[in-house]
Amino acid sequence: xxxxxxxxxxxxxxxxxxxxxxxxxxxxxxxxxxxxxxxxxxxxxxxxxxxxxxxxxxxxxxxxxxxxxxxxxxxxxxxxxxxxxxxxxxxxxxxxxxxxxxxxxxxxxxxxxxxxxxxxxxxxxxxxxxxxxxxxxxxxxxxxxxxxxxxxxxxxxxxxxxxxxxxxxxxxxxxxxxxxxxxxxxxxxxxxxxxxxxxxxxxxxxxxxxxxxxxxxxxxxxxxxxxxxxxxxxxxxxxxxxxxxxxxxxxxxxxxxxxxxxxxxxxxxxxxxxxxxxxxxxxxxxxxxxxxxxxxxxxxxxxxxxxxxxxxxxxxxxxxxxxxxxxxxxxxxxxxxxxxxxxxxxxxxxxxxxxxxxxxxxxxxxxxxxxxxxxxxxxxxxxxxxxxxxxxxxxxxxxxxxxxxxxxxxxxxxxxxxxxxxxxxxxxxxxxxxxxxxxxxxxxxxxxxxxxxxxxxxxxxxxxxxxxxxxxxxxxxxxxxxxxxxxxxxxxxxxxxxxxxxxxxxxxxxxxxxxxxxxxxxxxxxxxxxxxxxxxxxxxxxxxxxxxx
Length: 549
Ligand SMILES: Cc1cc2nc3c(=O)[nH]c(=O)nc-3n(C[C@H](O)[C@H](O)[C@H](O)COP(=O)(O)OP(=O)(O)OC[C@H]3O[C@@H](n4cnc5c(N)ncnc54)[C@H](O)[C@@H]3O)c2cc1C
Fold this sequence. Notes:
The protein is 31% helix and 23% strand. By secondary structure, it is of the alpha+beta class. Helix 2 packs parallel to helix 5 (128-141) and helix 10 (321-340) runs antiparallel to helix 11. Flavin-adenine dinucleotide binds next to helix 2, strand 2, strand 8 and helix 10.
């Protein structure tokens, strides 16, 4: 697609409510969440074109796909993806692509070809550059969003009413832009983060890794194993992983523990160590990276927020980075829209950091745990076996045990919770135990609303409104306090009554107040007489007097 470019005058032509710095997947997602809610924003992004030479994220998880469904672009994402779930949902562990298979995982990252009750959308295998293309396309359709390609954020100042950002384009033209809020989605080296005096805390691994994109015509025909989204190569000479970027001849690779100078000097050597010598390869690009476990000490400073890699970095094990950033974009997006439209208070904005920072922390810890056992470690696990068959059988069992959490993490992906949020009305009941692998649906306030199919391809999420939804699962439950509520005129609220056998048991209570991001804000058996207080509380307008609910 061609990208519209904006000049200086375009910035001034209309007031900007939110300036989004960085048009990677997180910045684009923030702009879509805001833009769909009628908020005028500008995305500032230096890259005019999207390169295919650094694919980075290759997996979009089920939760991100649910947000894409809410934005009505889940189908576009799937149509743009070269690898369908029907083609493969599996991860293979092997000695090389042309060697022996040790074991495999099915339905990795909840990539399934058929619908499941637990989620409204399965995961999708798709390179980050394709996601960005679809998101840019979506942004270009929104009247409310301008995509300023070719522009860089330089510095900012802020007061109680506005943010002034200094921007510069490639010809050194500069402009000062005023907005009500600014979201820094400018990645790991975030200038916005530096400008607001926020810093990362955590560790960086010293071990270097080496990535590449290559063409290998005929490789697919000589692979000894069934199709897989990822092949983990477990051998001592060239431990790493790889997979296809399309169903033609383009592949990605990740060589683990390789010195970048050595890797760059002879990437083919490592590649052949992983695929064997049957086909020639053409390396198109390489880049090196080290795992970073870093979390910003704050996600907000006044009218400036950080989201995505600008706020947190985790090792890529488990496919969590971009997906977590997308969750940030959703959270800050609806909250800023609520504030700007007059139905969200200061506390709602403050809840962004309180909700999202602990999630990022948990993601970093999970990815770090996944990193403990990679191909190199697996290649040298001490296994007591007197022949090869026994050795590989035992190794396969070991891989199943140690790597399960990396490919099956619905407990984290769907079960993350906003349990210390000031805009969630906790009812004092016990949460299910936290577990990365096993997702136990719960309507405990703060949880993602458990998913249900109401009909074929008709999700309970499709019934929720853009604003708050009062979900009533028993029409005999009196909701008359709502009629007398003045809050309902101010705060967008839709009542949805659904009666279906088993629903009350599943959702634990007949009434659930669901937020725009599909999280439960409150649940109960009846509506309080002072429903306004409850609404104000979940919108961060004032603290709730719990004795009244
Ligand atoms: C090898 C690897 C594999 C990965 N695999 C996965 C995976 O499977 N699943 C997953 O979820 N995540 C994965 N990730 C992580 C994922 O790539 C990142 O988390 C994701 O790119 C973060 O998106 P972002 O928009 O926050 O930042 P970025 O993608 O870094 O985007 C930041 C944007 O800001 C722009 N920018 C920078 N400076 C400025 C400035 N001064 N002014 C304006 N704009 C600026 C940049 O041009 C860029 O477009 C992987 C990462 C790596 C390295």
